[in-house]
């Protein structure tokens, strides 16, 4: 019978992939448990496999002093394990510890003080065989659970594909991964997504827990790693290392932004991710159930990168503060709502992607803030010099240089403001508005790249313009003539005092 058991162990080792020594130890423990249930069984015994493949039971007889010491040590270990279990469960256990049930370790006792005797029964009987069978099956299940846990604990952050087994509107979703059944909690589901029974979904393994019924795998559909892996699957350039995803910012179910960089000359990172006619990004959007994706080219210059991250809005100028990691973004008036996004979504994703705190202002708001700052400086008694503080009709600040000793340039409408100020009238910041058009002001704009704004259908890439600092106009003998408003030049006392015109 023992030889048949050994052969069965070998078959199980091949089929289940369980170590044969684990099964042999489980079999020895099972036979020992069965022996202790037989009448006349010794208090201490062990079961060993001899050279002929038969299991033999040996009684262990120890000196009384050594036996008491080993029993005391075993009792302390059992109490420690019981206290740890109570602390974990939060409940007090009323289990009684019997000396007969203690696991006494006599492996360190010298052999000359241990008396062994072969007490193997001729027949364990039906109960002993049934007990051995149950314990063996239990050990096999435990070994399978440990193997399963070791397999999935190393796959955390990996994207897996499973079949939905059970789904509900407000309940957790059970997903079959083949060897194990995973859990998609409500907190890790995307709002608006419905998971129909039998459908295939992709999700990220976020946690693996060890339970009594086997390992419990926790999945997530909200993790940004899902987008990164989906692009690696669909874009060969990313899988080969030619294109790298430098950052991902995601608002699950609504919009995502990814920053990509090319490591090979001639490879367009944005075009590689979009694919021919948007085929590659369309597959990712389909898997994410219509979530919009902006593909942004990575840039080492913070100002340019922030301007790109605010796609699809067009940015005029970006002012950065390297110390505080704060950026002021100036956009045209008609682009302000688009740059901020619905409920601040676009600005929030851009700040998350770049790691900078982003403050978005329109041209008029920024010019108004500059004018207020200039008025504040005048009130404090500081001499003003530099650029004219007047605000043009288009909401932007006048680019002309101020007349020395004044805060305004030589344009007629601005001279009137200067005269009112000289007469002692207190000007409100809202009154500092010139009556000229913005034709005089033509700030240079430079195209810094393209990005893709992709929704359910891919869209063509759009250039985002970033304005360079507006150049200071050179001093001239007389101001240019405006077609709409006549411009006069103020005569000064000496030749050194000449106005600067646009």
Would you spell out the secondary-structure blueprint of this structure?
Blueprint: H1 2-16, H2 20-36, E1 45-49, E2 55-61, H3 64-89, E3 115-118, H4 125-153, E4 159-166, E5 173-176, E6 181-184, E7 200-211, E8 214-220, H5 225-234, H6 236-239, E9 243-251, E10 255-262, H7 269-274, H8 279-287, E11 292-297, H9 302-309, E12 317-321, E13 326-331, H10 336-340, H11 345-354, E14 357-362, H12 363-379, H13 412-422, E15 445-454, E16 462-467
A few lines on this structure:
The chain is α+β, with helices and mostly antiparallel strands and 502 residues long. Strand 7 and strand 8 (214-220) form a beta hairpin.
Can you walk through the features of this model?
This protein is an alpha+beta fold. 33% of the residues lie in helices and 21% in strands. It has 13 helices and 16 strands. The strands form four sheets. A five-stranded antiparallel sheet has the order 6-5-4-7-8. Strands 9-10-11-15-16 form a five-stranded mixed sheet, sandwiched between helices. Helix 5 runs antiparallel to helix 8 and helix 9 packs antiparallel against helix 11. The longest helix is centred in the first third of the chain and has 29 residues.
Which whole number gives the mean pLDDT? 75
Shape: elongated
The parts where pLDDT drops under 50 for at least 5 residues are 376-383, 437-502
* End-to-end Cα distance: 107 Å
Strand order of the largest sheet: 6-5-4-7-8
Task: Describe the main β-sheet briefly.
Answer: 5 strands, antiparallel
The topology string of helices and strands comes to HHEEHEHEEEEEHHEEHHEHEEHHEHHEE
Helix content: 25-40%
Task: Please compute the radius of gyration using only Cα atoms.
Answer: 40 Å
Based on helices, strands and strand pairing, what is the structural class?
A: alpha+beta
């Amino acid at each position: 019978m023992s030889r048949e058991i050994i052969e069965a162990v070998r078959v199980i080792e091949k089929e289940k992939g369980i170590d044969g020594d684990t099964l042999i130890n489980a079999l020895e423990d099972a036979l020992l448990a069965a022996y202790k249930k037989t009448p006349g069984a010794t208090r201490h015994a062990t079961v060993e496999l001899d050279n002929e493949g038969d299991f033999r039971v040996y009684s262990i007889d120890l000196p009384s002093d050594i036996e008491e010491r080993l029993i005391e040590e075993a009792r302390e270990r059992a109490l420690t394990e019981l206290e740890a279990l109570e602390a974990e469960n939060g409940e007090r256990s009323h289990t009684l510890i019997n000396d007969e049930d203690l696991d006494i370790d006599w492996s360190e006792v010298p052999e000359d003080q241990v008396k062994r005797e072969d007490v193997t029964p001729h027949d364990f009987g039906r109960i002993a065989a049934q007990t051995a069978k149950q314990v063996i099956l239990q050990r096999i299940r435990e070994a399978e659970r440990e193997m399963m846990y070791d397999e999935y604990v190393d796959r955390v952050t990996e994207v897996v594909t499973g079949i939905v087994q059970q789904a509900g509107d407000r309940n957790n979703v059970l997903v079959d991964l083949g060897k194990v059944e995973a859990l998609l909690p409500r907190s890790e589901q995307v709002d608006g997504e419905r998971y129909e029974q039998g459908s295939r979904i992709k999700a990220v393994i976020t946690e693996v827990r060890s339970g009594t019924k086997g390992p419990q795998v926790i999945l997530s559909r909200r993790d940004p790693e899902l987008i990164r892996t989906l692009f690696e699957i669909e874009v060969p350039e990313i899988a080969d290392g030619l294109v790298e995803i430098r950052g991902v910012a995601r608002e699950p179910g609504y919009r995502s932004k990814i920053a990509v960089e090319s490591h090979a000359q001639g490879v367009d990172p944005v075009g590689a991710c979009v694919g021919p006619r948007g085929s590659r990004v369309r597959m990712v959007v389909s898997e994410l159930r219509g979530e919009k994706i902006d593909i942004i080219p990575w840039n080492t210059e913070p100002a340019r990168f922030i301007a790109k991250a605010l796609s699809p809005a067009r940015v005029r100028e970006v002012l950065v503060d390297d110390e505080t990691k704060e950026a002021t973004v100036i956009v045209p008036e008609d682009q302000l709502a688009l740059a901020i996004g619905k409920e601040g979504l676009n600005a929030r994703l851009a700040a998350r992607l770049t790691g900078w705190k982003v403050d978005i202002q329109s041209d008029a708001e920024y010019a108004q803030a500059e004018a207020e700052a200039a008025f504040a400086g005048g009130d404090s008694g500081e001499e003003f010099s530099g650029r004219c503080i007047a605000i043009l009709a288009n909401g932007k600040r006048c680019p002309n240089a101020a007349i020395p000793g004044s805060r305004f340039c030589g344009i007629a409408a601005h001279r009137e403001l200067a005269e009112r100020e000289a007469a002692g009238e207190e000007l409100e910041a809202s009154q500092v508005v010139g009556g000229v058009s913005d034709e005089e002001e033509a700030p240079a704009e430079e195209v810094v790249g393209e990005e893709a704004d992709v929704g359910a259908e891919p869209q063509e890439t759009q250039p985002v313009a970033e304005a360079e600092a507006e150049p200071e106009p050179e001093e001239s003998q007389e101001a240019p003539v405006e077609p709409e408003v006549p411009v006069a030049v103020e005569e000064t006392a000496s030749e050194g005092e000449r106005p600067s015109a646009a």
